[in-house]
Every structure is written in C-alpha cells, then in structure tokens.
Amino acid sequence: MGLWQRITRIFRASTGAALDKMENPELVLQQTIRDMRDRVPELNNSVAQVMATERLLSRQKENLEKQVVELDSKIKASVKMNRDDIATAYIGQLQQAQMDLERTNIQHDNAQSASKQALKARDNYVINMKKRTAEAMQLISASKQARLQEQLAQTMETFNIGDDASTFNEMREKIDRRVAAAEAKLQLGSSSVDAQMQDIEREAMDIQLQDKLLEYKAQMGLLGAGSPTAGKQISAGTADVSNEEVLEQAILNETNETN
User: 3-class DSSP state for residue 69?
Assistant: First the structure.
C-alpha cells in the first residue's frame, strides 16, 4: 500500500470518527421529519398538475364531441339542400374532428390513469411519512432516555461509595471517642473527693437537723421521762467525729490513688 493511500485512509477514518461524534441522532431524525413534511406540498403540486391536464383533456373531449355532432348535423342539412360542395367540406372537417377526438380520448385516458397513480402515490407517501414520523419520534424518545441514563451513569461513577463509607466510619469513630471521653469525665466527676465530701456534708446536715428536732421535742416535754437527749447529743458529737474521720480517710484514699 502506497503512502498516499495510507494517508487517505487515516484521514477518512479520522473524519468519520469526528462526524460520528458530532452527529446527533435526535437532530438528524428531526431534520428527516421536516424534509419529509416539506415534500408533501411538492407532491400536491405535481398531483394538481396531472389532474389539471386530465380536466383540460376532458374539456377538449367534450368540445370535440359537440363539434362532431354539429358537423354531422350540418352535413345532413347540406345534403338535404343539395349543397354537395358544402357537405363535402363539412365531411372533411368532421373527419378531422373525429381524428382529434380519438387522439384526445387516448390522451384523456392516459391522463386519467396518471392522475389516479399520482393520487395513490401521494397518499402512500403521506401514510409512509406518518409511519416514519411515529418511528422517528419513538427513536428520539429512546435517544433522550439513553442520554439521561448516560448522565445518571456518569453521576454514579463520580459518586465513590467507598470514600464516603470511610468518611462515615471515621466520623463515627470520632463521635464514639468523644462520647467515651464525656462518659469517663462524668464518671470521674461523680467519684471524685469533692463529690464524696458533698455526700458526707449532706449526711452530716441531715444528722444535725434530726438532733435539733430532738432537742426541740425535749424542751417542749414531748419526749418521755429518761429520754436519752444527752445521749443523743453525745452520739451527735460522736457522729461528727466519725464524719470527720470518714472525710479524712476519703481524702487519704484519693491521694493514694492519684499517686
């Protein structure tokens, strides 16, 4: 294969590939529909011309038939008047009119057949055009659907589910760590020395309130004789001492745990 043939083949292949990319099936089909519809007026004009020729020949046929009848009457009248010369002239005109009528009949028959064929061809074309138009519309709809599916496929390709899944997992781990840290801080706060001291102080305050209530009842004589009010006071003192010892022991335990 020569160099020029190879270059020509490469050029044709490149040009064909470029045209395939540029060619839009929807636009081509729409243009085809427009072209088919534009041909309908041209066909109507052609059919109209054929039908006009048929009607013209039909009128000529009628005129010639009338002329033949008139000439025949004139010939008969001339014969009755013994005007053979005039009758002979009319006979010549009659023969010419009959020849013209015969030729016109043939032309009229041909024109009538051509008119029927033209009408049939026009009707077949219109039917075929409607059928092709319906098929083209279906193809255009299918092409649009295919284009939408291609766009959806491209969108799905850009959406990488693996990357998003790893992002979700990473965010879940971070949130879990934050929740765990918050729970640990809450647990640490609830078990700290301050929290224990608050519990002890709350309990000591309850004991003091109970002792005050007993003192009021003793002063008002609401307690029976031999009521161990003093014993309660001693017990309250003992409770205070015990509470202080418990507080000191809690502080010492917290210090040992911290070390």
Answer: helix
- One-letter identity of residue 13: A
Q: How far is CA 33 from CA 26, 30, 122, 124, 224, in A?
A: 11, 5, 16, 16, 118
Within 10 A of 25 (CB to CB), how many other CB atoms are there? 14
Please state the rounded mean pLDDT for residues 204-209.
86
Task: Tell which residue, 244, 181, 257, has the closest CA to residue 207.
Answer: 244
- According to the model, what pLDDT value does residue 234 have? 41
CB 254 within 8 A of CB 193: yes
Give the per-residue pLDDT at 239: 44
Alpha helices in the chain (DSSP H): 3-22, 25-80, 84-158, 161-190, 193-219, 229-258
Token representation of residue 235:
């017990």
Distance CA(223)–CA(174), nearest Å, equals 64
Find out if CATH 1.10.3210 is the number for domain 22-159.
no
What are the sequence ranges of the domains in the chain? 22-159, 185-258
The total number of residues written for the chain in this structure: 259
Identify the sign of the CA torsion 247, 249, 250, 256: positive
- Across 172-199, average pLDDT: 73
Tokens for 33, please give them.
């529909």
Mean pLDDT, to the nearest integer, of 6-33? 67
Q: How far apart are CA 87 and CA 71, in angstroms?
A: 9
Position of tokens 């202080």? 244
How many C-beta atoms surround the C-beta of residue 198 within 10 A?
11
